[in-house]
Write a structure and sequence with these properties.
The chain is α+β, with helices and mostly antiparallel strands and 376 residues long. Among the domains are: 118 residues, no CATH class; 116 residues, 2-Layer Sandwich (Heat Shock Protein 90), CATH 3.30.565. It contains ten helices and five strands, in the order ααααααααβαββαββ. Strands 1-2-3-5-4 form a five-stranded mixed β-sheet, with helices on one face. A hairpin with a 2-residue loop joins strand 2 and strand 3. The longest helix is centred in the middle third of the chain and has 75 residues. The chain is rod-shaped, with a radius of gyration of 39 Å. The two termini are 72 Å apart.
Length: 376
């Protein structure tokens, strides 16, 4: 059995109050204005009033097809003039239709209608006897009205397109910023969880191994597990608060920064990794984003050393330059890292986001090196 696809319904936008009122206003202005400038009311009969009203009300047909108001107003206005009715604001409906047609982007239709209207006005002036008769000045006046209306409509159309483009650009920028924020949060979660879970995993193994033979060392390992798990939970809670966009109590713990490197190195020392820290230059307060990025690079690099290098020692060098801060992490192990992976990718992204550089790779003398330079 052949399946018949249903025809899509044409969705018509709801009428706004401007769309409802505009044709009525145009019709009323044409009728009242024509009567106001006509000395003898008897020359304007029912048919004349109908044509004046029709050239305004036909604007409603723009919801059916954009060309109907243009054709309708042109026919009603031409018929009104051809029947010899008195002058007045009889071309208002046609000018409005011309304006709206250009506003929707149908400039060819508008130009063709304007040329037709001007030619029709000239033909009616030559064939129909009117009082007063159409003059050259009146012809130029009609042409000026048509050209002026199209120019104003084109200006408005371009401005609308400009504002639409600006709004679209702002929306794209907002989406890009949201994406960057999600990426930043993902990097934070990766750095914090990878570091702390690695500590928890190793220390849990140590605690299980020494639980019977060395309870004191096992207790120390469990203390490290408790501190690392608490920090992880705090970071997760803070991140979820950002994602949910709720107002929470301000964090009580200071933000990660190079000033807290001693805490990081202390936890690693308890876990069995002895890290020697060297600071060159004059330590100073850094911009928050650079300070956080430098700390996370050190943290991630030391996590990789702790997990993969199979060594007991590592070195961290922090350098304060006039316009930058540098961090360098060195180890003598056999598997301190690789040139690929989520950790190194995250470190490079942090450096790139600040306009800095990050280099990571094996050392000629053995081991692994991570070097980052962040502008401040």
């Amino acid at each position: 059995m052949r399946r018949v696809r249903p025809r899509p319904l044409r969705v018509v936008p709801p009428l706004t109050w401007r769309v409802r009122v505009l044709p009525l206003v145009v019709a009323a202005v044409q009728i009242v204005g024509t009567r106001a400038v006509t000395e003898d009311d008897s020359v304007l009969d029912a048919r004349g009033y109908a044509l004046l009203a029709a050239s305004g009300l036909v604007l409603y047909l723009g919801r059916v097809h954009v060309g109907l108001p243009l054709a309708g107003t042109l026919a009603a206005t031409g018929g009104y003039l051809a029947l010899g009715y008195p002058w007045g604001p009889i071309g208002l409906g046609f000018l409005i239709a011309l304006f709206l047609t250009i506003l929707t982007g149908h400039r060819r239709w508008a130009k063709a209608a304007a040329a037709t209207g001007l030619a029709g006005f000239l033909a009616i002036g030559l064939l129909v006897e009117r009082d007063p008769a159409p003059t050259v000045g009146r012809m130029f006046g009609v042409a000026a009205w048509l050209v002026g209306t199209m120019m104003v409509a084109e200006f408005v159309r371009v401005r609308r397109l400009h504002f639409t483009e600006v709004a679209r650009t702002r929306m794209e920028e907002h989406k890009r910023q949201s994406s960057d924020e999600r990426l930043r949060i993902a990097r934070e979660l990766h750095d914090v969880i990878a570091h702390n879970i690695s500590l928890i995993n190793v220390q849990a193994g140590v605690a299980l191994h020494l639980l019977d033979d060395d309870p004191g060392q096992a207790r120390e390992a469990l203390t490290v597990i408790k501190a690392a798990s608490k920090e992880t939970l705090q970071e997760l809670r803070s991140t979820l608060g950002v994602l949910r966009q709720v107002d929470e109590e301000a964090p009580r713990a200071p933000a990660p920064s190079l000033e807290r490197l001693d805490e990081l190195l202390g936890r690693l020392a308890v876990s069995g990794l002895d890290v020697r820290l060297t600071v060159t230059g004059t330590a100073r307060e850094l911009p928050a984003n650079a300070d956080l990025a430098a700390f996370r690079i050190v943290q991630e690099a030391l996590t990789n050393v702790y997990r993969h290098a199979h060594v007991d020692t590592a070195r961290v060098l922090v350098g304060y330059e006039p316009d930058a801060v540098t961090v360098e992490i060195l180890d003598d192990g056999v598997g301190g890292g690789s040139t690929a992976g989520n950790g190194l990718t995250g470190m490079r992204e942090r450096a790139d986001a600040l306009g800095g550089t990050l280099v990571a790779g094996p050392r000629p003398e053995g081991g692994f090196r991570v070097y980052g330079r962040l502008p401040t």
